[in-house]
Amino acid sequence: MCLTQNAAIDSEHTGGNHGQNMILLKFCIGGEMVYKGMYRLSILMVCTLLAGCAGAATRAGSTSNNGNGNNSLVITSFSPASGSVSTTVTIVGTGFLHIRDVAFNGATTASFSVVSDTQINATVPANATTGPISVTTIHSTASTTNTFTVDQTTSPPQISSFSPTGGAPGTSVTINGSGFSTASSVNFNGSSASFKATSDSQIAATVPSGATTGDIGVTDTGGTAVSTTAFTVTQSATAPQISSFTPTSGSAGTSVTISGSGFTGATSVTFNGTTATFTVTSDSQIGTSVPTGATTGAISVTTSAGTATSSASFTVSSSTTLKSSGPINLNGQSNVTLSGLHITSTTGDCVTLTNSSNITIQQSEIGPCAGNGIKISGGNTINIYDNYIHPDAPLYPCCDVSDGIFSSGANGLTIWGNVIAYGEANIEVQYADTVKVVGNFLLNPRNTSTGSRGENFQSWYGMSNVTVENNYTLASEDTTLYTFAANQEDSINLGYITTALVDNNYVEGGQSPSGCGIIADDSANSMTFSSNILVNTGECGIGVGSGTNQVVSGNQVINKTPVSGGGNTAIYVWNQYSAPCGPVSVDNNIAAEVRSDGTISSFWNGGGCDPVSLSNNTWGQAAVNALTPAPAPPAIPPQPYACPAPSPYTTQHGCGM
Questions:
Q1: What is the 3-state secondary structure (H, E, C) of 164-181?
Q2: 8 A C-beta contact, residue 497 and residue 525
Q3: Which top CATH class is 74-151?
Q4: From CA 651, how far away is CA 290, in angstroms rounded?
Q5: pLDDT at 255
Q6: What's the confidence (pLDDT) of residue 4?
Q7: Distances (CA, A) of 651 to 182, 243, 457, 559
Q8: CA 601 to chain centre
Q9: Which of 69, 185, 372, 387 is deepest in the core (most CB within 10 A)?
Q10: What is the CATH T-level fold of the domain 158-233, as seen in this structure?
């Protein structure tokens, strides 16, 4: 007889040969059998044929099901009964083949595996709480009657390294590892230290007063981590003492050596209350220079432990006399030397050279000006040595009306040993062959409202054979130290040029979301960027944005000041223009940019410059460790040609090549 009343197929299970099931299929219409036959089929094959195979499978001898042909969804047990986040739990039951979700008290885990129809392995998710475990298919959900207990105890922290490995009280120390997010204390050999967990993997701590050499410890709710190596405390913090200084008198810009003790970590040096720039050469010696505006009186040195004041006064003498001059205009001249002048202008450019040759401008102060400091048009063999150039001019929408030096069409230009500050661009050169920029200090370019310039050095349009080496470029927003804050795009920018060497420069600072410390810009071909140091240049250290036959070799890039909206990578290669780009060689660099979320970006290839070859570079945390602390900047200017003119920033006054 038929078991169904409608047109369908009924089945009955019978025994079969060789252990196989035999299925008697009945084709029925209106309850009357119209055909039957014996087939050797599996239940699965029958289910494929039948729209209503669930009932057929049941009558063929299957266990009870949940409506989809599988065993009933049941959880019979789980183990372990408790555990912390990330613990693997084995769930036992039936009907597991088509599981979609596993949850711990409603918190779904993204990590589970169905081992079989009777077993699931699942990982306790981060947001789990104590409660039942549940498993879900598309048809139903099964839950445990017992609760799984989530252990909220956190894992103890781990210390992998710290930098530097030694220092005096007050020294900043970066501790690397894991589990620092909930850190409650940091100690140096048992002495409690102030600290800040900058990420789960890094802590910034300060060596406390009274600390001694020993392990560093980090404690959180999970326990205490102890470093495997000792931090060496080099000395106790003591108040500074000044025993002597030499010379005992001098004019503004004079170099002064202060001797004494306790100078490590000095935060300020003053001459009778006027703040001076300085370098701590050792715990017992400071190199400084007499600041502009200083008057006769005592010298003071301040550290975190106190302030030392000299018992004798430093006598400030009148400055080296520079002969005052109004604007100078040389047209068609040759074999002229301008020296020892203080040149100013209230009407335009301070110095204008037009189609002149064999001109030397040296050891002079140029500025303030109502235009460019020096403007050069045409000519050849122009030498600009050891000057202090600061146009301080009003900014205009565009372009090159308030540069430190603006040169167009002058071949054989040498700019050496100068201090150049506050230009729209500090040096802008165009349409020339053989330009050398050596040993200068370039400070705080001031981009215009239209973004026309803003470079410490830019070579743009029709250029070839340019050398930029041994310079110190700085972009700072600190108006307590500098007259104008920087508004820099790129520090060193080269475009529409063939053959340039940018070597051994110290490039510091940068705030633009689209600027780099050094960049090969549009159609810059055969660029070599080598042995440069770039520190905190903002969103980009070195960029190759265009050009063929580019080499980026042996540079050190450490950026810990990412810029919001910027790409924030230490080195990038990416064709940003329609001109050809590549090949590019990137080798033997140490480079890292620490982004605001704590991740590190050392290199990015945006495409379009193939082939790009990478070899022997140090990236990531290894680069951060190698460049922490960052290399110190050079003297100012880094390489005088002979005797630099006085400036508020000069620290190097020696004469000679």
A1: CCEECCCCEEEEEEECCC
A2: yes
A3: mainly beta
A4: 9
A5: 85
A6: 36
A7: 45, 22, 22, 26
A8: 6
A9: 387
A10: Immunoglobulin-like (2.60.40)
What whole-number distance in Å separates Cα of residue 373 and Cα of residue 303? 39
Segment 278-298, tens digit of pLDDT: 999 998 999 998 887 788 899
Sign of CA dihedral 264, 268, 272, 278: positive
SS (H, E, C) 422-450: CCCCCEEEECEEEEEEECCEEECCECCCC
pLDDT over 90 at 510, yes or no: yes
Report the helix count and the strand count for the chain, using DSSP H and E.
3, 64
SS3 386: coil
User: Closest Cα to residue 607, out of 546, 524, 540?
Assistant: 546
Question: Do 74-151 and 241-316 show the same overall fold?
Answer: yes
Which candidate, 471, 416, 406, 354, places its Cα nearest to that of 642?
Answer: 416
Instruction: Assess whether the previous peptide bond of 399 is cis (omega < 30° from 0).
Output: yes
Amino acid at 382: I
Torsion angle defined by CA atoms of residues 602, 604, 609 and 614, in that order, rounded to the nearest 10 degrees: 40
For residue 166, which phi and psi values (nearest 5 degrees)? -165, 165
Helices (H), 69-143: none
Q: DSSP state, 18?
A: G
Contact 240, 304 (CB under 8 A): no
List of residues 6+ apart from 328 with CB closer than 8 A: 338, 341, 343, 350, 351, 352
Domain ranges of the chain: 8-59, 74-151, 158-233, 241-316, 490-630
CA angle at 373 for the pair 371 and 379, rounded to the nearest 5°: 105
Q: Where are the alpha helices (DSSP H) in 515-629?
A: 620-626
Beta bridge mates, 574: 607
Cα dihedral value 259, 262, 264, 265, nearest 10: -120
For residue 525, what is the DSSP state?
E
Q: Which CATH class is domain 241-316?
A: mainly beta
Give per-residue pLDDT as tens, 192-244: 999 999 988 999 999 998 888 999 999 987 788 999 999 998 865 578 999 99
The torsion defined by the Cα of 205, 210, 213 and 216, in degrees rounded to 10, comes to -30
Instruction: Give the pLDDT confidence score for residue 580 in this predicted structure.
Output: 97
